[in-house]
Each structure stands twice: as structure tokens, then as C-alpha cells.
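Posting for a labmate who doesn't have an account.
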Amino acid sequence: MLRSATAIAALAFSSLGAAAPAVAQVMKPAAITADGVPAIPATLAEKLRPYLEARSASAVDWNPVDRSLLVSTRFANVAQLHTVASPLAMRRQITFETDRIGTAAYSKSGDVLLVQKDTGGGEFFQLYTLKDGRLTLLTDGKSRNEFNAWSHDGRLVGYSSTRRNGADSDLYVVDPRDPKTDRLVAQVKGGGWGIADFAPDGRTAVVGEYLSVQKSNLHTLDLATGRLTPLTDPKAQVAWGGARYAPDGTLWVTSDEGSDVQRLGTLDTRTGAFRAVTPPGKWDVDEFEVADDGRFIAYATNEAGIGRLKLLDPKTGRSRDVMGLPQGVVGGISIAPWGAIAVTVSSAGTPGDVFVVDPATLAVTRWTESETGGLDAAKNVAPELVTVKSFDGEAVTGFLYRPDVKKFPGKRPLLIDIHGGPEGQTRPSYRGAANYYLNELGIALFYPNVRGSSGFGKRFIALDNGPFKREDSVQDIGAFLDRFAADPRIDAGRVGVQGGSYGGYMCYASAIRYGARLKGAQCTVAISNFVTFLENTQSYRRDLRRVEYGDERDPAQKAKLIAISPMTRVNEIKIPLLVVTGANDPRVPKSEAAQLVAAVRRNGGTAWHIVAADEGHGYAKKENRDYSTLAVLTFWQQYLLGEKAQ
């Protein structure tokens, strides 16, 4: 049994005396500080345990030597790299680190496996080579380094690093077989730079400069001189997504030039002209990959949250739809040198698994089948799409999961769970431990995509930009509350709100604006004061966040940022809070949580607070995640259901 879910920390006795029955309690992980959180009975952990034991697997890369698939999955405390030799074969673990392994990629010949990893969730990533279960450090061990791409001949790795000044993501190349070849190619200004791909001739590379979700630029980088030449108009308000070279030198990109959504097309490297290949429509092309021989391009679209995989023939411009995948979220496209296409799919009944598509026949083969704690994932309810008109007539949507009406008749409590970003998007993926609320407690779950969410075009994503539009997205929550107040199957008197990161800000803001309609708020890694957040977030991302939220250096914007910050109106928070924080969070520092929790308590309010010393922007380690999940469940049983956890 997992310590975090079921271990006994103490035997508590009731005030009636030693003859009272002992109550086993869940042991708190060593890295967790739980302030104000009551003891959690081990019986609750036993009930939840099957839901905590679900795993997932995601495609990482193909091994060009033995044709095995590299996947990321968790068998112990954190996700590690595993190889899978054939469909549904054993997952063989090849990394054994304390922290999770994120990105990894093989060289063209397969002689080197490059790995990217941070420590304690701090996101100061380092690059390593992996051999015989051991990582060998390539980067400086201190700055933030991000793997960008392998050169087409497999000789060089391109990466970005803040090594020079801690803020700017300069561009480097290295032959990982000889760390002494590491060299700075180009100094840049800003934290959003990266080498998207190397040209087939190895002399140049295409570089992306991310400024905001609505604005980015592409450049050509001369690898010998370090000269950057704009490929796209730096004055144009256009977002350029992925960029990949085909073997013949054609540069394939995604862009919203001339469109409200991202389309796939080619970019003329001489003139900068974009030619869209996918037709105009209302859905984004999320990602794509070009086959090594250039015969096809695999790309994924986001259609009202549902992922669709398509294969494009560059010669004819004709696309074919892959029909054999589960209906859910599709991503992580990886094309093998021999053409097999690996993708990761997550849906209500699929916890995140890898499927492989034959590009000739479009036949789909499942390569991993992750465990779901012994539960039948096929029984999980699929969501329904809810659309409402907000205060200004803008249509906003979300996914509603309802409990089984036969098992839970009548009006049911509701939890509203708001995504982060704010440019994120909630999609109908596997709900994990949240399925316990649906299947065992009869609590409905709603995941809104308020204005500013991605997936609905660039007009929609800009509707919350800057401090003067920020609270418009909060009012979208009010429109959903109105909608559910009229729903005969929802108990409008038992509604709670939760969210993480920007969704955590929305969680605080909803507690202030709509507190009379809510029973509690559970806010994770949340912004409490936009000015202190912008001042204290890591320097490499500060300018990127100013574009979205506002510039605290401008007096008018600063005044508005303060006015809309939860800390300014913290005395209006009357409902109970549960705040979850990572001590190493580089995005939303733990001080954001500490100041709000202290203020709520000074005002006589209730605020439970959980801090993990070895986590960052969200919990990656299973023992921490399990304890946090149990604490959240305890919170909602007490304040939403009015029950004592047991």
C-alpha cells in the first residue's frame, strides 16, 4: 500500500477515554506542511485508493536502432522513461531519478539519448545524456536550459539557455558526444526564444521568438555567424506555431495569418509568404510532424476540444482522417524513421495511452494499456458541452460531467474547476481521481473555458487581455452559475469552485464576487496580487506575463492590477479556503499564497494551507499528490456535502 494514501501516522483517541476505538490516520509526506488541515482518516484513503492508482503513458520518441518506443509513465513516485518493444509489451524502465523526466529525444542514429530534467519542480531544466541508467550533465547545472531540436544529421543539439544573465533565452548548440563543443550561437533579448528546427543542409536553423499567445516571430539563424534574419514581419500581429523543414528544404509552419485560427502551411524562406494548406475553418491545427522522407505530414486539430489526427500528402494537398483512435484529446505526435506514427490519446475512458498509426493503411494499434486501479474506465461518464451567453452576449462553453442519475437521483452538488493559462483550455481528457466525486459521491463536475481560453481562435483568446478586461472572465463564471441555478439536476445551494495557477486567481476572484453562491474555494498555486506576482515571478518569464496581464511599471495599469487583485478585496472572502502551494514554484511564488492565507486568517476566516517543499507549479510526486488529493476531498466533504470525512 502507498504510504501517502494509507499509512498510519498516529492512533487518535476520542475524548471519551482510552476505551474509545482508535482511529487510523493518513501519514503526511515528509515534504508536506499542512497548516490547518484536519487529520485525514485512513478509511477515506482506502476508499479513494483505486482512483489514485491510475497511470498514464505518453509517447516520447522512437528508438531508431531497435524500433522500440520510448514512453513516459509512472510506476513509483514520479514519471520516468520506459521502453516498449512492441504493442502492449512490457514497459521497461530506463531512468530512475528522484524527479520526473520530461523531454527526451534520440539522435538520428540512436547513439545518443538526450534527456531534459529539473529538480524539485523548479523548472530550471538541465540537459543530460542517458546511458546505462545514468545521467551525464551537459549544461551548467544552474541556469534554465531547454532542449530545442536535433540537427537532421544527428550531430548537433540546439537548445536555449538563460546562462548569460538569468533572463534571456540565448541560443546554443552542442555535440553531446563532446561537451567541449558547447557554444553560444546567438544572444537574444527575451525569454521566449528557441530553435524550432535545423535546415537539412545543417548551415542554418529556423528560430521562434514567442512574445505572447497572439504574437510571435520566425527568424533564420546562421549557425556559423550567429546572425538572425527575420523570416516573418516583426510588426505583424501574427502567431506562428510549429516550424519544421521537410527533406527538400520546404519549411512547414502553423500560423493564424489571414485567419482566426492556426492553419498548416508553408513559409517561403525568401519572401516570407505564408501559403495555407489546410482549409479555413473554426478549429486550430494544434501540432504537426513531418515524416523523415517527406512523404506525409501528421497533424492534429482541436475541434471543440476533441482531437482529430489527419495525414497530409504534401504533393496532392489531400488529407486523410485517422478514424480508429478513441474520441478524446490527441497529441504528442512522434513519427518513426520508418513512418509509424505514435500519438498519445486521453479520454473519459482512456487514462492517457499510446496508439500507433500505419501511414499507409491508417490502421491503429494500441501500444500501451495503462492501469486504472482495477476500475473499469469504460464506465466513466463522458461530458456534455454547455454553452451560455455571458454578461455581454459573448458565448462561452464548458464540459459538464453528471453523476449517474439512477445511482444519484435528484439535485446534485456541483464543483466548478477552472483551468490555468489563462491561455489554457480544458478538454475532455481522463479525469483521474476526480472520477471519485462523480462515481462515489454523486458530485457533478464542470470545467469552463472562459474568455481568454485557447482553442477558440485569436479573437476569443484576446478578450481578457490586460488589467481592464481581466474581470470579464470572472463574470463568465457568474453566467455559468446562473445557468446551473436553473438546471433541475443541479443543487444551486451546494456549489464549490476550484482552480490552479490563473485558475487559482479565478478561484479567489469567484470567492469574492460570488461567495454568497458558493460553499468553498480550493485554489492551487494561485495569483493573489498581480503586482507582487509580476515583481516576483522568474525574470525569464516576466515580460511574457506582462503582455497578458498588464505592466505593473505603468501607473495606470498598476492601479488597475491592484484594484482587481484578490488581496485588495480579501476581506470579502467569507467562505472557507483550501490553498495548495509548491515551495519551488518559479511561476507563481509561494509568497502569493502565504500573504492571502495570512490575511484571511487575520480576518477570522478559514484557510487550510498545504505546501510541498519539493514541488513547483503543481505536484509531480505521487505521495504529495495523493495527500493533497485526500485533503481536497476532505475539504469538500466537510464544506460542500456537510459531512465528516470517514
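Reply:
Got it, the C-alpha cells are right above this. Confidence is low (pLDDT under 50) at residues 1-20.
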